[in-house]
Design a protein that fits this description.
mainly alpha, Rossmann fold, three-stranded antiparallel β-sheet, three-stranded parallel β-sheet, elongated, 560 residues
């Protein structure tokens, strides 16, 4: 999780989804049979959790609620994967609460006692950090100068990130849990099962690592380094381990409790599940083997591993795994610059077990899909509602849809108008739909703002018009004549029929080649909107003028 450590802020304020219902929302009660037959994956996950609790004969109470957890490595800033894990876990949590009515709790756990292995590239005051390698992140000075430690700085950023989205959670720090004694009983349980745990881990390690492996890493009382030291003995009765100090080769003894030792991370993960009583935690597919190993360790300790899905990681537009070093990712801030938080939540909701491509062109698609789902919600029956993604995105209380124009259509309008300001788009919208305004349609106002930004930064720099061929020029003149026969208030379907008829008369086969011509010649792009809807929004007369510009070479720089 080595992210760029800068004090950047999203260019659009995010809205809170999960804290509480908005004033115009009301909680809808669903029939038990409908809930039990819900097909949405969060409900499927909730049912596996119910079976786990039944097998354990666990009875959640307000004091001991069902515990959901997400983990975070604070060597870098929270990113889009952090959002994905928390939002998906929150969806399962809501589904579980809806099915059972039982109390739950979500813990966001920071592994801030991990030793810092290298100086991050993108931080100020690197020279301040270099002497502290090997120390727990909470023992490393804060290069930003805002907190007592580097770990505390990044923990604060994590909490600010989660709070900005309105997630309901409790924050836990590994350092606090170790040093306060919260983990002491569990650490002694690991020590009591030292040989069994070690024997489970050793087959997963390389030959060199096997020779010196121990579940425990002593914390040097002098330097505060988390030591990868050779453990030469352990004393269950005394609660200690004996190790060789790598600095001078001397043999020393350390208690395993009170923050004087840190567990190796796979064992640490299992110990945390055991100590906190975690019931549900999902993780990325890259941790699948770790989940198996940590589950075995949890069982050795006498606990029951949590339920959870293994979700797929993101790919770029070329199908390659996203990585920071390649710079082929898409950040939360970038998504929220060009699209809505709800659309990002929909992207995370869709098929979590399947690898998905995450790049800029996905944003408009998800925005339109979100509003399509939202429009269907109010007219659907209860069975369809509970499986509608917007129910899960909004924690069971989706708002009313009030967007008369799709986002992709707005983007194409912005492109044709070369919109530099939202007022340009509103000039067309007010003619298209009577009574619309930024005040009466705030959802639409957000989309207009996004459309202008997306066009200016993601479309305009790459837009290329081509001149029509001689045959295409003749077909465009035919389309102009068809449009001339229509009125300014013609319906989108009538306009679409006119466009279709030209393509058929011109002999395009397949017909999509005609629409490709329109997109490339009139819009300067390879894909585009439903032309009938676009022309209705842009205007019949304006579209005829656009055709004339294409024929004269004004758009492409060369006359047909």
């Amino acid at each position: 999780m080595d992210q760029i450590l800068t004090e950047t802020k999203p260019r659009h304020m995010v809205r809170k989804l999960f804290l509480k219902a908005r004033p115009d929302m009301s909680s809808h009660q669903f029939d038990a049979e409908i809930l039990n037959n819900a097909k949405a994956w969060p409900f499927a996950e909730a049912r596996t959790l119910i079976k786990r609790l039944e097998k354990m004969k666990a009875s959640p109470t307000a004091e001991q609620p069902v515990l959901f957890e997400t983990g975070y490595g604070p060597s870098g800033l929270p990113h889009i994967g952090t959002f994905g894990e928390v939002v998906r876990t929150s969806m399962v949590r809501k589904a579980f609460e809806t099915l059972t009515g039982q109390p739950t709790r979500l813990i966001c756990f920071s592994d801030d006692m991990d030793g810092l292995r290298k100086v991050p590239d993108n931080i100020p005051n690197k020279d301040m950090i270099a002497p502290h390698l090997g120390k727990a992140l909470t023992d490393v000075p804060d290069p930003f100068g805002t907190h007592n430690s580097f770990g505390e700085h990044n923990n604060a950023r994590l909490q600010g990130f989660l709070d900005g989205f309105g997630f309901e959670y409790d924050f836990f720090s590994a350092t606090e849990c170790y040093q306060s004694g919260r983990f002491d009983d569990a650490l002694l349980t690991v020590l009591n099962n030292y040989d069994a745990i070690t024997n489970v881990v050793l087959p997963t390690l390389g030959e060199e690592r096997r020779a010196t492996y121990s579940p425990f890493m002593p914390v040097c009382p002098d330097t505060r380094e988390v030591l990868q030291a050779e453990i030469t003995g352990h004393d269950v009765a005394a609660g200690t381990v004996e190790y060789i100090d790598p600095r001078d080769g001397s043999v020393k003894t350390s208690s395993v409790t009170g923050g004087q030792c840190k567990l190796q991370w796979k064992c640490d993960w299992a110990m945390r599940w055991y100590a906190l009583g975690v019931d549900y935690e999902m993780s990325g597919k890259d941790l699948s083997e770790s989940v198996i190993l940590s589950s075995k360790i949890t069982r050795i300790m006498g606990g029951t591993p949590p339920e959870g899905i293994s979700y797929e990681l993101f790919l770029d537009q070329n199908g390659e795994k996203i990585s920071k070093s390649k710079g082929n990712g898409l950040s939360v801030e970038e998504w929220l610059t060009y699209g809505t938080e709800e659309a990002l939540s929909l992207f995370m909701y869709n098929q979590p077990k399947r690898a998905k491509r995450l790049f800029f062109d996905v944003v408009p698609k998800m925005v339109d899909e979100y509003f399509t789902h939202l429009e269907k919600y109010d007219t659907a029956d209860d069975a369809a509602r509970i499986d509608n993604p917007v129910w899960h995105i909004h924690g069971g209380t989706p708002p009313k849809a009030n967007v008369p124009v799709g986002f992709s259509l707005l983007l194409n309008l912005a492109g044709v108008c070369q919109a530099e300001h939202p007022d340009v788009i509103w000039g067309y919208l007010t003619k298209y739909a009577e009574g619309v305004s930024p005040e009466s349609h705030p959802q639409l106002a957000h989309l207009v703002n996004y459309a202008v930004t997306y066009y200016q930064e993601r479309v305009h720099p790459f837009k290329t018009y081509r001149a029509p061929t001689a045959a295409e020029a003749e077909h465009l003149r035919m389309l102009d004549q068809k449009l001339a026969a229509l009125t300014a208030d013609s319906a989108a379907e009538d306009i679409q029929s006119a466009v279709f008829s030209v393509g058929k008369e011109a002999g395009y086969d397949p017909l999509r080649e005609w629409f490709s011509c329109l997109y490339q010649v009139l819009l300067g792009q390879n894909e585009g909107p439903r032309m009938g809807s676009f022309i209705q929004l842009y205007g019949v007369a304006e579209t005829r003028a656009l055709i004339l510009s294409a024929l004269s070479g004004e758009l492409s720089g060369g006359a047909a």
